[in-house]
């Protein structure tokens, strides 16, 4: 059986604000096993980042963890150990977990890099922090090895440059090298390719996929664009208004999507075979998370909403052992609503049927 690296149980995160408490994450549960990539996908503001910050022990002054567990399993000299990351001391988080067992890659590489420090020094600092026992030569060797791992050819030149002398894609490679310095078992990627042009984006995605495979890394990949994770995610968790509304394998989500919100996200992914002037977006906006939500949070934007959607939160209906969706359309009394025609057409094309 593949070992579970991370298990999130009923995590609820809120923020104090002058306008009330924002219920950013309203009870989510999922697991990440060794060597798997789990994608968290949803529009801006649906709670993706708020749900992963506690994994890294990041605590804004106004953050409130309302409930939940984040159980993380890692290897120690005495064998595997499981800790609840919400309960460990900041010291253990800093000295043992953050940057060592769990590392993060953010959207904007410039926020993670020091503009005043040469690349080799920045990577060396990260190596030193996680391997204090290494001497200078060992550190230098490891730095070169990391630069090579992230696919940089002219490493002798790059290591003596400053971040501003590199392209966006190169900078993101360096950030990935720094993230790998501690040899983590879990890598969290928060929109790592947003802002890069399409060809560079594809290269960075391939790099993450290669590293993930060769190191048997577990990855949590956050994105607002479902298209980005089609080829890299083992499982996809679609999030809306702080909840997971559909979860399944990539196959389930891309070939058999069942939640109207997932349909909307898929419709807004560009189809490279079709030329369209404007991509459809999902009409409306996400709800005000300071106000109580009655029923399905997506109902006001859902053209397939039933009366019950405005009254009662749908449970997670089981479609198969790994595919679940929270929509009343899956209740046996609901009218049969087919997948929108445009998606149906795309799916048939992907399956090679038309
Ligand atoms: N520090 C904070 N204080 C108050 N509200 C916050 C804070 N951080 C996030 N929020 C709110 O929590 C909700 C979830 O935000 P979060 O950043 O997790 O969304 P997201 O899905 O990651 O979006 P994005 O893709 O834009 O990062 C939003 O309503 C956001 O405004």
UniProtKB/TrEMBL annotation:
It comes from the Bacteria. InterPro entries: AAA+_ATPase, ABC_Ni/Peptide_Import, ABC_transporter-like_ATP-bd, ABC_transporter-like_CS, Oligopep_ABC_C, P-loop_NTPase. GO terms for molecular function: ATP binding. Keywords: ATP-binding, Cell membrane, Membrane, Nucleotide-binding, Transport. Residues 6-266 form the ABC transporter domain. It is a peripheral membrane protein. It is found in: Cell membrane. Pfam families: ABC_tran (PF00005), oligo_HPY (PF08352). CDD domains: ABC_NikE_OppD_transporters. Its main location: membrane. Belongs to the ABC transporter superfamily. This is Peptide ABC transporter ATP-binding protein.
């Amino acid at each position: 059986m593949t070992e579970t690296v991370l298990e999130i149980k009923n995590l609820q995160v809120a923020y104090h604000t002058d306008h009330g408490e924002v219920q950013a994450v309203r009870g989510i549960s999922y697991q990440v096993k060794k060597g798997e990539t789990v994608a968290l996908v949803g529009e801006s503001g649906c709670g993706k980042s708020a749900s992963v910050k506690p994994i890294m022990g990041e605590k804004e002054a106004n953050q409130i963890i309302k409930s939940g567990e984040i159980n993380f399993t890692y290897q120690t000299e005495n064998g595997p150990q499981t800790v609840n990351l919400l309960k460990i001391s900041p010291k253990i988080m800093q000295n043992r977990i953050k940057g060592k067992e769990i590392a993060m890659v953010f959207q904007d590489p410039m926020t993670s890099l020091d503009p005043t420090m040469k690349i080799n020094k920045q990577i060396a600092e990260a190596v030193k922090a996680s391997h204090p026992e290494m001497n200078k030569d060992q550190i230098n060797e490891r730095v070169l090895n990391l630069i090579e791992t992230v696919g940089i050819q002219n490493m002798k030149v790059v290591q003596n440059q400053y971040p501003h002398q590199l392209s966006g894609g190169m900078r993101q490679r360096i950030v990935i090298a720094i993230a790998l310095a501690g040899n983590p078992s879990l890598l969290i990627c928060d929109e790592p390719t947003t802002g890069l042009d399409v060809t560079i984006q594809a290269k960075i995605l391939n790099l993450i996929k290669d590293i993930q495979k060769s190191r048997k890394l577990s990855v949590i990949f956050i994105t607002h664009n479902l298209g980005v994770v089609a080829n890299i995610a083992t499982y996809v968790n679609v999030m809306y208004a702080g909840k997971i509304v559909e979860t399944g394998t990539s196959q389930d989500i891309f070939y058999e999507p069942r939640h109207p919100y997932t349909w909307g996200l898929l419709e807004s992914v560009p189809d490279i075979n079709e030329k369209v002037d404007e991509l459809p977006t999902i009409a409306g906006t996400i709800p005000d998370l300071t106000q109580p939500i009655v029923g399905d949070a997506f109902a006001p934007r859902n053209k397939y909403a039933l009366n019950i959607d405005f009254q009662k939160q749908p449970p997670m209906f089981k479609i198969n052992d790994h595919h679940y969706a929270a929509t009343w359309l899956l209740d046996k009394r609901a009218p049969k609503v087919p997948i929108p025609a445009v998606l149906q057409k795309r799916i048939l094309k992907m399956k090679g049927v038309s």
